[in-house]
Amino acid sequence: MTNQNYLVTVDNSQYVLRIPNKINSLLINRSYEEYNSKLASDIGVNVDTLYFNSKTGVKLTEYLHGSRVLRKTDILNDLVVREISKTFLNLHNKDVKFVNRFSVLSEFNYYVSLLKDKSRFLNYHSLIAELINFFYKLNDKYFSHENKVSPCHNDLVLENILLKENKIFLIDWEYSGMNSPVFDIAAFLLEAELDAEESCYFLEHYYGDVFPTYREDILNKIRSYQFSQDLLWFVWTLIKEEHNEYFGDYAKYRLERSIRIMEEIKL
Fold first, then answer.
1. Alpha carbon 259 to chain centroid distance?
2. What is the mean pLDDT of the chain?
3. φ, ψ at 221 (rounded to 5°)
4. Which residues pair with residue 164 across a beta bridge?
5. Are 181 and 150 in contact (CB under 8 A)?
6. For position 1, what pLDDT does the model report?
7. Residue 31: what are its φ and ψ, rounded to 5°?
8. CB 28, CB 175: distance < 8 Å
9. In angstroms, rounded to a whole number, what is the distance separating the alpha carbons of residues 103 and 42?
10. How far apart, in Å, are the Cα atoms of 239 and each of 2, 4, 23, 122, 262?
11. Mean pLDDT of 220-224
12. What is the residue extent of each domain of the chain?
């Protein structure tokens, strides 16, 4: 949704060339992305990065032959679910540090500061003030008191997850940083649009024996992060629209879902 990617062939070898859109320079710190994505490659969860220009965001990476974007139907395959869980745990449990801290509330406040027409944001829906207030309550309850922060991808849409022979790779580390692992899990479940049964099936693999014991607490925290993500990417979309990038009803969809999720969360 944010970049142009080209398949490039040089001397019978293939690479992916990324050309970012101009507005991304406001939203993304390329120095952070460069450091984190190379570290993720060292960990083994990212493809190899061959060239990265931290000023322009132009990037050249290895083309992963035989890979494809993860599909929702893949997540119903036990072997694939185990591999996704293994990859996430490998990232989240590594004793390494990304160069930056990703705070969803800080990102939200920053995105709001970038809006040229803040009145459009504040008047977009009658519940905006309530949503913002709820966001701050969740920050006080969960986000600002995380006991564990880990290397996180922070943008786990299915398009950023590649499957190759039952091995999982995560690509596009633009929003990566140290964060609660729950943020990644919440994003993955939200973006894959898994229902309650499918979500619990995955969570049983990721959390193991811990999940049945703390099921309700884990699910409530996941929903809290999903609420924050929908509100964050809603504002992100408004910024894009102010710079003539349009994604249909994406902003409305994100906002309306955040309202539904808010009603499910127990404070």
1. 20
2. 96
3. -70, -40
4. 167
5. yes
6. 62
7. -65, -40
8. yes
9. 24
10. 12, 18, 9, 13, 23
11. 98
12. 68-264
> pTM to 2 decimals?
0.96
* Per-residue pLDDT, 76: 86
* Polymer length of the chain: 267
* CA 215/CA 189 separation, integer angstroms: 15
For every residue of 18-31, which 3-state class applies, written as one string? EEECCCHHHHCCHH
Stretch 92-101: mean pLDDT: 97
Sheet holding 59-62, edge to edge: 3-10, 13-20, 59-62, 49-52
Spatial neighbors of 41 by CB under 8 A, at least 6 apart, are 47, 48, 49
Confidence label for 133 from pLDDT (cuts 50, 70 and 90): very high
Q: Which long-range contacts (CB under 8 A, 24 or more apart) does 4-11 make?
A: 7/63, 8/60
The residues that bridge with 177 in the sheet, in sequence order, are: 152
Pick the CATH number of 68-264 from 3.90.1200.10, 1.10.760.10, 3.10.180.10, 3.20.20.450: 3.90.1200.10
